[in-house]
Each structure stands twice: as C-alpha cells, then as structure tokens.
Write a structure and sequence with these properties.
The protein is of the alpha+beta class. It folds into 2 domains: 3-93, no CATH class; 107-193. The protein has helices at residues 21-31, 69-77, 94-101, 120-129, 173-185, 207-213, and strands spanning 3-4, 9-15, 35-40, 44-50, 55-62, 65-68, 86-91, 107-114, 134-140, 145-152, 155-161, 187-193, 218-219. The radius of gyration is 17 Å and the shape is elongated.
Length: 220
C-alpha cells in the first residue's frame, strides 16, 4: 500500500495521454522540490515519489499485477502510451516524502504480537518512546477488520481502518477506535520500520510491506 499525505493538489485531473511524464516530473522537481505524482484509471493505480534530485520510489497496482521499484517507475514514466490515467501532482514536505516513499520497503521488526500479551495503547506509547519511523499494522479479531497507525519519529502521522470510508485520517479518531476494538475483540500487531536513508528505486518490497502493497493505494 502506498499513501500520500492529505495535501492540496498542486495540479489535478490531467490526462496522461497528453503528457510527457518525464518532463512533468522534471518541471515539478524544480517547481516544488519534493512530492508525489498519482496515476489513476479504471484498471490501474500508481504513484511516483520524488525529491528535487531524483525519483525515490514507484508503485503500480493493476488488476492482476503489482509492481514496485524500477519496473513500476519505468511503466509509469511511459504511462500515457498504454493506459488512460488521470494524473494528480502533490507537494510533500522534504522531511516527509522519504517516509511515504519508503512504506513498501519497510522492515518488520516485531511480528505477530498478540493482545493476549500486548496492549495496543501501550505499544503505541512504546514506539513513541523509541522514536519509531514506520507503522503499526493491526489485525482485529480473526482478521475480519484491520488498520494501520503511521508514525514519524515516534509521533503519530495518521491512521487508516478497513471499516472507514477508505481514506486515512490525520486525527486521533482511527487510533482510538483501533485501541477500543482490539480491547474488545483481540488481535495481532506487526511493527514495521522505514529506513529513510535506504530508498533504492530498484528495491523489492520486504514481506512486511508486501501484504499491504497488494491491497490498495490510498490518497490521504
């Protein structure tokens, strides 16, 4: 899964058929410095993340296929030739763009923690004290519902839950609901860490990121 923080689009509703994506990227690298380019069609969805000097990562989800790294980047740079994408450009602050770009290559540092031994509220507090940059992946009950809490340097940057409207929230609403539901129904947690200084565009997602990568792209 790839998420982009809820910033006002710099440019939206462009048709990739009429665009040179490489030139569009070069323009906004100079214009806004860092951000994401979102691609959406009826059959596929993708994202390119960039800073002022380089492409940081890419992700492409098609109906029966999921790509990341160099392969996804190459496909998206040539997007207008094959898929009729609607393109939106977002500015993302430099200190955060590496976080969102690195979600799909996150490393799982704690896995399958059970509510039998671990309280979600306490786990969030612990990850805050450890200054975690990453996320907590939450499965509720037998996995019928799930959610994610995003953290940057130990501070909550938002959350996502499967019973919502499909959109992450920057408020504490999802956090409190997730805590409540895991108390009532039990669940398991995986804690994933993002290495901000390790974003090779040819990278392959680890098992920590792969499960979420195969779900959906969510514009936050």
């Amino acid at each position: 899964m790839v998420v982009i923080p809820s910033e006002q689009p710099v440019l939206e509703n462009l048709n990739a058929y009429y665009l040179d994506i490489r030139k569009l990227l070069e323009h906004f690298q100079g214009e806004i410095g860092s951000g994401g380019i979102h691609f959406k069609s009826h059959t596929a969805e993708g994202v390119l993340f960039f800073d002022q000097d380089q492409l940081l990562s890419g992700f492409l989800q098609e109906k029966n296929n999921t790509l990341s790294g160099r392969e996804a980047i190459d496909r998206l740079l040539e997007a207008g030739k094959s898929v009729n994408f609607i393109v939106t450009v977002y500015h993302i602050d430099p200190e955060e763009v590496y976080y969102w770009a690195g979600i799909q290559t996150a490393e799982k540092i704690y896995r399958d923690l059970s509510t039998e031994f671990t309280d979600l509220k306490g786990l969030i507090k612990k990850m805050g004290s450890e200054k975690l940059t990453g996320y907590i992946d939450i499965s509720i009950g037998n996995g019928e519902q799930n959610g994610i809490i995003f953290l940057i340097n130990g501070k909550i940057r938002g959350g996502l839950c499967s019973w919502g409207n499909g959109m992450p929230s920057l408020s504490g609403t999802h956090q409190e609901l997730l805590i409540q539901k895991t108390k009532e129904q039990g669940g398991t947690f995986n804690v994933c860490r993002i290495a901000l200084n390790n974003l090779p565009i040819d990278s392959t997602p680890t098992d920590a990121g792969q499960a979420r990568l195969e779900t959906a792209i969510v514009m936050m």
